[in-house]
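#onboarding

Welcome to the new folks! Below is a worked example of what a typical request in this channel looks like: someone posts a single protein sequence, and someone else replies with the predicted structure as tokens. Don't worry about understanding the tokens yet, we'll cover that in week two.

Example request:
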Amino acid sequence: MHAASRKPWITVFALALPLAHAGCRTGSETQTELVLYPAPPADPRVQFLTYASGADQVEPSHGGFEDFILGEEPEADRSLNKPYGVAARDGVIYVCDTKGLCIARMDFKNAKYSVFGVRGPGRLKKPINIVIDPLGYKFVIDTVRKQVVVFSPEDQYVNAFDVPEPCHPVDVAVHGNEIYVLDNDNDCQIVVMDRATGDVLRTFGSPGGEPGQFKIPNSLCVDAEGFVYVSDTHNWRIQKLTSRGKSVWVKGAPGYLLGQFGRPRGIRVADDGVIYVVDGATEIVQMFDSDGTTLMRFGGPGDAPGALGLPSTLAIDKSSLPYFEKYWHPEFKPEYLIFVASQFGAHLVNVYAFGGFPEGYRISQLKVAPLPQIAMDEGIGPVTEDDSEEEPILIKRRKKPGQQK
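Example response:
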């Protein structure tokens, strides 16, 4: 994204902030209306593309006779149970299934659904977050094993590194030869480990509300320059730190307006410097520039395609663009894809594209899903919260389709 195209964001997007949407079918169904953020007449920068909740959205559908001949895999192995962490590379979406106790592999490149991390020394006990390095190695945080579990580009077990006790590791990032682990137990610190040996190189952070301190932090990431970003959940803010833990800026406050947080969760930064933060309370994704200035948001509560149901975290990937081209508008020019995991609802992993339409291009209103507007200073109503669940932060909002009340 060019700097010149960023400048109008704050004024334009403050006027067009969608919350929910309807009338769009995706995945294996036909998409009849576009879901765009912000909605026209503002210039859209994010388009919802499709979703995946398991094999049904990835593999070709089988007929009854073919199922009889080939046999059907157990349902638990064919769909996501309770996703949390997500990563993507070259057309494959990797999802931490915290109840299936595995990594689900949704391969849009080869139309194949599979799982790994279910046996042997790489057997996962509770995977919660995953990142992929430039070489294709996967680094998985397991909160029960209390380890960083490493898998090869071919998804084979490689190694596991212990996080020093006492600990409750919840997220991981890789930068160069270093692994960054976010520990949200009573120490509330970031542990930096050697990528090759697992040796602890340094730690920084402590409990509290001052810059550089955390209170039940949920997520972290590292940008190309080595700056660390932390979703500081119970301080209702995000932080930017140096690789040694020195505070650069702190942004956010409790609330339901843009730039505020009800429950900040997953945080990731794109190559263009845009910071994406999932809010589990308002069920939106907020976007910030590298200085922490609020840009826009997308998603929103609801059950329609593109909406989010208790979102946990997200991933950003450019290499997967060719495998989702059929979903975006032919005039939309995407720069990269955004994958957002939800823990409840019919659409568990939503796929969005960040980009834009050519200057001056106008879309027929008949082709765009109607999106209720809301002024920036009106905010979003709170939801019922309950922090007693197993994951670091969970909010009881709705049950899955078919579940008993």
